[in-house]
Design brief:
The complex is a heterodimer of chains A (395) and B (552).
Chain A lengths: L7 H5 L6 H5 L1 H6 L6 H12 L3 H5 L8 H7 L7 H5 L6 H14 L6 H13 L25 E3 L3 H6 L1 H13 L4 E2 L10 H6 L5 H14 L4 E4 L2 H13 L7 E4 H10 L13 E3 L14 H11 L5 E2 L21 H17 L4 E4 L2 H20 L8 E4 H7 L2
Parallel strand pairs in A: 1-2, 1-3, 3-4, 5-6, 5-7, 7-8
Helix pairs in contact in A: 11-19, 15-16, 17-18
Chain B lengths: L24 H11 L4 E2 L2 H6 L11 H4 L6 E3 L4 H13 L4 E4 L16 E4 L6 E5 L4 E5 L4 H10 L2 E3 L11 H7 L6 H4 L2 H4 E7 L5 E5 L12 H4 L9 E11 L5 E7 L2 H12 L7 E6 H9 L10 E7 L3 H17 L3 E2 L2 H9 L13 E4 L2 E4 L3 H14 L3 E10 L2 E10 L4 H4 L1 H15 L3 E2 L10 H5 L2 H12 L23 H16 L45
Parallel strand pairs in B: 2-4, 3-4
Antiparallel strand pairs in B: 1-2, 5-6, 6-10, 7-10, 8-9, 8-10, 11-13, 11-14, 12-13, 12-17, 15-18, 16-18, 16-19, 17-18
Helix pairs in contact in B: 1-4, 10-12, 10-14, 14-16, 16-19
The chains are: A alpha/beta (395), B alpha+beta (552).
The complex binds flavin-adenine dinucleotide and iron/sulfur cluster (2 copies).
The site of one iron/sulfur cluster has 15 residues of chain A, from α2 and α4.
Chain lengths: 395, 552
């Protein structure tokens, strides 16, 4: 009699303790139970487990417009799952239920329609022409094959090009021969899987995996944790994994530092604080050591700052989960909260290793600068950058 | 967060007559003008979500109580609360304060609809004063946030509910319970120095003193609101006492053959002059449940007692020796440091065994420490009588008091089995009262117990309630009265007889567990509670790497 909701058995286990709610960055801003992981889990269960009594009481627990919209008030940061009292894999629940919502005709949300259209025609979510994917490289001509295949990703190809430019210089400086898929690199599909519109995901996976295998590369590196998570975890979960290793750029750079192929000689200015990207950390392969080794090498041990909550407990920047398009104001507010915490701890440079975090944190920096100016509260002194940029400054 | 510009009319006078649900667009419009459009709703989904709390309600409940609010309001400051209370009173609409909604027992659900006021957006930490050793916070701040704020200034929060990750300051004050650290630092009441409270008549008062303790002449006004379950007013701010933090909490753990043996050990420990930070225990059934879920468990443990130590290093060392002697003499075997760490880190995850249900019904009763072993026998008897799959956890609240937290695992998708929920609770209440103890929470489901627990004192409580809330609008149907949606007061005897009947019915059903399960040996395995852990925060990876690439 109930509706076939994904993960219904898991949702049965929810205690409604609200641990997930108190750590949820979007709930903190919205405040309504319907925009909280607990609220979502409860209502999904009610939909899945309708009882005769529901009928007798004239109730038909169902998806409503508010429920649907608030379902996307979520950055997919995975903190809810991390603290869940009963260990429900909540971020998988969100992903599968977004798919279910789209399958049952509720979605996609208006702001996601344009993204999906751009993905269908240009193979990136931002509406940039597919044939300009490699423009960030300028005159640089990557080798046809190489030690590593760099899967640059949409963000570092089109918008966060300072990060990719630094990456290229670092790999060159270390004497690594690297190649990319050029204009044949398609969006990995992370955005579609986050939105729940997975219709073309396998097609996308096939294309990228085939293209990578055609280069003969056995090692794929990406500076985007969303790409590494998708190329590795998500493709493999769908039985589409390729015959190659996927690592994050921080792992490669840490290796190059260990091997002495990169040697920092200068200390970049400013007090650095490190932000763990969710998809590099708890949502992904829990890569916490590599970026910290880089920071130690560049700045010296104990010469940079940690947020009070870090690693598995690190707080979200607000930029993930295809949420920025849904409510940019709240996404930026989440970043601003984090940056104000950084300021309070004495930091002036917030370093991360994810282009989505970099983008949203910078958005937060601009917003705080503007707000402080308008309120005549003095300057907000902070920069947000990728760890590749920081490392490059030290050479 | 919205700026509060509303200025409270603190001299608003109370109206007369009895409570009636007056719905209407004008109330919502007034509330929206007061707190802001985005902080008040009548959306059906939202109201359904605020009709839920921990544990699935027996479905019949909705026939009797109107647990679904008509309006939900999320104030952002004290002035919003004052204004909302005034609007509610002018319109004779009941109002139910709510924090994270984790008390259970229907505590933060309305009994007659009306307004639910969700205070969790009032979450500002106003001040942490390292010199005065206090923190002043809004009522919606979680205890975990207070703990971390204290820690960032080198101080310790004394005690907190094990649900600290979500439980709000106002909510624990409302419930008035004991928690982690209460053995050394006292119950909820002792954590709080000063309260700002909005009374049912809209007046804003201060109770207690921010800088000094309040144990001098005058009625203990501050404590009147502790354990009031939101029936006397709404706490908007509190000043919390903090303590010097000498270092991390040092957990130790001991395995016993069974809970009764452990109970004797704990008795001995409470008679020793040392004061550990916290004494908690889980019985063999609980360990077996964990094992059933695939958690690794130490071998041959029929009960695990975790004694957490804290304070000056010499104090910790002394306490450690005394604990070893007391528990060792009762047959306790000391577990490894790793096992003790895991037990401590999982202190906020006691109900993860809900997975085996998938329903779980927790109970909480106080029993005198000197009758602890007897209580253990009696609870096991009830468990086996009712044919339940159940376990016992608990903590020692102070030298005289053990907080027994038996829980019952149930498949709440099956309606008939859900019936036993209430009868289990009644049995626990009976046991605790007959041993000179008491049930801990009352809420909506057990309001009929107030007289049984407090005798004629219950009448005094009702008189206090009437004098502060003559219109009976502040969380009606809780604690001091059983209030149904039809304004019918259910006689206590009828309610108790009904609960007894449910027990009879449950006994006619097949047992939830195979015989003999109730006291078997088991093991332990703990899910790490990282956010709550007392290990240093902000440290760097001690061994540099190692976690990479493995996935999680
Ligand atoms: C996993 C788990 C562990 C728990 N461990 C403990 C424990 O160790 N010790 C313990 O005592 N309890 C414990 N509890 C019960 C409960 O979590 C606590 O009582 C908690 O403090 C309630 O906080 P809350 O914010 O959820 O309050 P709610 O449940 O929302 O409210 C509790 C009561 O206080 C009233 N109230 C809420 N806010 C205010 C306010 N601002 N002013 C006036 N009244 C208000 C409500 O109307 C209600 O009657 C536990 C519960 C769970 C689920
Ligand atoms: S933390 Fe887990 S068990 Fe608790 S309310 Fe959230 S989903 Fe439910
Ligand atoms: S994934 Fe993050 S944003 Fe989404 S519900 Fe969980 S905690 Fe909230």
């Amino acid at each position: 009699m109930g509706v076939d909701v994904p993960f219904a058995e898991e949702l049965d286990v929810c205690l409604r303790c609200g641990y997930c709610r108190s750590v949820c960055p979007t709930w903190r801003e919205v405040g309504w139970e319907s925009a909280s992981p607990r609220g979502r889990a409860y209502w999904l269960r009610r939909i899945a487990r309708q009882t005769p009594l529901d009928r007798a009481m004239g109730l038909r627990p169902e998806v409503t417009q508010r429920f649907f919209e608030h379902f996307y008030y979520c950055t997919m940061c995975g903190r809810c799952a991390e603290v869940c009292h009963t260990a429900i894999p909540l971020h998988h629940v969100w992903e599968s239920c977004r798919e279910w919502l789209i399958r049952t005709g509720w979605g996609p949300l208006e702001p996601h329609v344009a993204m999906l259209k751009s993905l269908a025609t240009e193979n990136n979510p931002w509406g940039h022409p597919a044939n300009r994917r490699t423009e960030w490289m300028g005159d640089r001509k990557p080798a046809a094959t190489g030690d590593v295949l760099w899967f640059v990703g949409c963000s570092e190809s089109y918008t966060q090009v300072q990060a990719s430019a630094a990456g290229a210089k670092l790999l060159d400086a270390a004497g690594i021969s690297w190649t990319t898929l050029g204009n044949e690199e398609w969006c990995c599909g992370n955005a579609e899987s986050k939105i729940g519109a997975t219709e073309h995901l396998d097609e996308r996976a096939r294309h990228n995996v085939d293209a990578i295998e055609a280069t003969g590369a056995t090692r794929v590196v990406s500076g985007c944790p969303g790409c590494t998570l998708t190329l590795d975890g998500i493709y493999r979960d769908r039985g589409m994994g390729g015959d190659f290793e996927v690592i994050h750029m921080t792992q490669l750079l840490a290796e190059l530092l260990d091997e002495g192929k990169l040697v920092p000689v200068k200390k970049p200015r400013g007090k650095v604080i490190w932000h763990d990207p969710c998809e590099l950390g708890r949502v992904g392969d829990r890569i916490y050591g590599a970026p910290r080794r880089i920071l130690d090498a560049v700045l010296g041990e104990d010469n940079w700052l940690e947020f009070a909550l870090n690693r598995d407990d690190g707080t979200c920047c607000g930029g993930g989960g295809a949420f920025k398009g849904v409510d940019d104001q709240i996404a930026v507010r989440i970043a601003a909260n984090k940056l104000e915490e950084a300021e309070g701890l004495g930091a002036s440079v917030c370093v991360t290793a994810c282009p989505t975090c970099r983008f949203n944190l910078n958005h937060g920096v601009q917003t705080l600068k503007r707000e402080r100016k308008e309120a005549e509260e003095g300057a907000f002194k902070m920069r947000a950058m990728d760890i590749k940029e920081l490392l490059l400054r030290s050479l | 967060m919205a700026q509060c510009t509303y200025t409270a009319d603190l001299n608003h006078q109370a109206g007369g007559a009895t409570a009636r649900n007056v719905k209407g667009p004008d109330i919502v419009t007034k509330l929206a003008a007061l707190v802001g459009e985005d902080r008040v709703t009548t959306d059906d989904l939202e109201r359904e979500l605020y009709a839920a709390e921990i544990a699935n309600l027996p479905p019949e409940v909705v026939y009797v109580f109107q647990v679904k609010p008509d309006i939900v309001v999320r104030p952002s400051c004290t002035e919003d609360v004052v204004g909302t209370v005034n609007i509610a009173r002018d319109n004779r609409v009941p109002i139910t304060p709510r924090g994270a909604g984790t008390l259970g027992l229907g505590g933060s659900l309305p009994s007659k609809g009306g307004i639910v006021m969700d205070l969790s957006s009032m979450n500002r930490i106003m001040e942490v004063d390292p010199d005065g050793m206090t923190a002043t916070v809004e009522a919606g701040v979680t205890w975990e946030e207070v703990r971390r704020a204290a820690r960032s200034k080198g101080l310790r929060l004394g005690a907190y509910p094990s649900s600290a990750l979500s439980a709000t300051v106002g909510g624990w004050i409302g419930g008035g319970g004991v928690g982690i650290g209460s053995y050394k630092y006292g119950p909820a009441a002792d954590q709080v120095r000063w309260l700002e409270v909005v009374l049912p008549n809209g007046h804003l008062i201060e109770a207690g003193f921010r800088g000094v303790k309040d144990n001098a002449s005058g009625y203990a006004l501050k404590n009147l609101f502790v354990g009031a379950e939101g029936t006397l007013g709404i706490v908007t701010r509190a000043t919390i006492r903090l303590h010097p933090r000498a270092g991390d909490v040092v957990p130790t753990a001991y395995a016993f053959k069974d809970l009764k043996k452990a109970a004797y050990g704990i008795q001995t420990l409470t008679r020793s002059p040392v004061t550990p930070y916290n004494i908690g225990f889980v019985d063999g059934n609980h360990l077996r449940h964990l094992e059933e879920m695939g958690s690794p468990v130490p071998s041959a443990a029929g009960t695990v007692v975790t004694v957490a130590l804290e304070g000056h290093s010499e104090e910790v060392a002394l306490c450690n020796r005394e604990t070893e002697t007391a528990l060792g003499s009762a047959g306790g075997r000391r577990l490894s440091e790793e096992e003790a760490d895991e037990a401590w880190l999982s202190r906020s995850y006691e109900f993860r065994v809900k997975r085996l249900g998938p329903g779980l019904v927790p109970g909480s009763v106080f029993v005198p420490t000197d009758r602890f072993p007897e209580a253990v026998d009696r609870v096991y008897e009830a468990i086996s009588d009712l044919g339940m799959k159940a376990g016992i956890t608990g903590l020692v609240a102070d030298r005289n008091t053990v907080d027994l937290l038996p829980y019952y695992i149930v498949d709440d998708r099956k309606m008939l089995k859900g019936l036993a929920v209430m009868s289990f609770m009644k049995r626990l209440t009976d046991i605790s009262l007959s041993l000179g103890g008491r049930p801990v929470g009352v809420g909506m489901w057990f309001a009929q117990n107030l007289g049984r627990v407090h005798g004629e004192g219950a009448d005094v409580m009702r008189a206090i309630k009437r004098s502060l809330d003559p219109d009976n609008l502040m969380n009606p149907g809780k604690l001091v009265e059983v209030g149904t949606r039809y304004d019918l007061a259910v006689p206590h005897t009828v309610m108790n007889a009904g609960l007894g009947l449910m027990g009879v019915l449950k006994r006619t059903l097949p047992p939830d567990t195979e015989p003999g399960e109730t006291a078997g040996p088991g093991g332990m395995g703990w899910r790490e509670l990282r956010a709550e852990g007392d290990e240093p925060e902000g440290g760097k990876d001690p061994d540099g790497e190692g976690e990479e690439g493995e996935g999680g």
